[in-house]
Amino acid sequence: MAGSDTMRAATIDRYGPPGTIRLRDVPKPNPGAGEVRVRVCAGTVNRTDTATLRGHPFFVRAMTGLLRPKMHILGMDFAGVIDALGADVARFTVGERVFGLLPERFGGHAEYVCLPADAAIARIPDGLAFDKAAVGEGAWYAHSTTKRLEAGQRCLIYGASGAIGTAAVQLAKMRGAQVTAVVGERHIALAHSLGADRVVNYEAEEFTAIGETFDLVFDAVGKTSWFACRPLLKKGGIFAATDLGPYWSNIFLGAWFGLTGSRRVGVPFPEDAPGFLRELAGLMAKGRFRGVFDRCYRLSEIVEAFRYVEKGQKTGIVVLDIASRDAGSGSA
Questions:
Q1: Element (H or E) spanning 278, and its range?
Q2: Count of structural domains, the chain
Q3: What InterPro entries does the record point to (predicted)?
Q4: What is the distance between the alpha carbons of residues 291 and 171, in angstroms, rounded to a whole number?
Q5: In a 3-state reduction of DSSP, which class is residue 22?
Q6: Is there a contact between 21 and 332 (Cβ–Cβ < 8 Å)?
Q7: What distance in Å separates the CA atoms of residue 174 and residue 190, rounded to the nearest whole number?
Q8: What average pLDDT does range 173-200 have in this prediction?
């Protein structure tokens, strides 16, 4: 068991497959002025983590490190308990239950993390368990696209069963949009339960030929393209995706349509994580937003968690149980 000055963390020192992750005891961080330290109880493993681990696509290494990763502990989501405060922190107190996002520094795959008190961190609504509060990353990405919608507009969400897609259905409905969700047969009931007005089973029906058009088509899993979805778009309609598309086509098309002023293709870049987390906490407290969860792995099983997420078949969120210790030790 880690000593009082150390913590257990899933670490990386090079890009590569999940097998490059190692569990180690590393120094426990101490909060600086204006920071809080959180004892992490739950985190997640998501597509952002798997892409960062592999340093893919290559150009992202300009931010994450060209030859070796700058960040040695991954993990964007966390939920836990504040256990220490730096100087000049008045917003939180020791013992408060919080959840949040670490979009720039990562670090959620560890037993403790420090971050500024004014960063993307909010109180967990009463009665919500830690493993049900680690929901920020997918919802944040979904919000960056669904915020374009206005009441009465129509949107289609392709891949409405993943972490981003399940959040996008709920957030789009909150904005008053009519939502068509595209999922596989086993997720039809889930999409309906999230509020989708229409659900299309892509295994039985070609979703691009349903005879409807939309103000927004959102590829929440990066498995289709603007070229395939053109028949679905109204005049002036927008295609948005969470992936670069075939041959990075979404980037090139987004740049082209941006130059022409039409902005019909976009790869959304989420902004204002602190503001969004506070908004999300309010929605969760009112029962207007809920996370959808696939399965849970212990920290010692993190390699298996990464391998599962890389299959691209998860439903909603894959949770990492960091509070529970088991016989796993040493290399993961």
A1: helix 273-285
A2: 2
A3: ADH-like_N, ER, GroES-like_sf, NAD(P)-bd_dom_sf, YIM1/Zinc_Alcohol_DH_Fams
A4: 12
A5: strand
A6: yes
A7: 17
A8: 98
Residue 182 domain boundaries? 138-266
Q: Is the pTM of this model over 0.85?
A: yes
Quick one: how far is CA 23 from the chain centroid?
Answer: 23
Q: How does pLDDT run across 83-105, given as a tens digit for each residue?
A: 999 999 999 999 999 999 999 88
Mutual angle of helices 47-54 and 302-310, in 10-degree steps: 100
How far is Cα 35 from Cα 194, in angstroms, rounded to an integer?
36
Considering the domain architecture, whether residues 297 and 223 belong to the same structural domain is answered as: no
In this structure, the dihedral spanned by the alpha carbons of residues 58, 60, 66 and 68, taken in order and rounded to 10 degrees, is -100
Peptide bond just before 57 cis, omega within 30 deg: yes
Query: How many angstroms separate the Cα of 260 from the Cα of each of 62, 145, 263, 264?
Result: 28, 20, 8, 10
Name the residue among 227, 212, 223, 210 with its Cα closest to residue 264.
227
Residue 247 lies in a domain: yes
Beta bridge partners of 243: none
Calpha distance 104→89 (Å, rounded)? 21
Contact 218, 180 (CB under 8 A): no
Residue 177 backbone phi and psi in degrees, to 5: -85, 155
Q: Is the pLDDT of residue 261 over 70?
A: no
CATH classification of the domain holding 54: 3.90.180.10
What mean pLDDT is predicted for residues 171-192?
98
- Among 291, 317, 272, 286, which Cα is nearest to 120's? 272
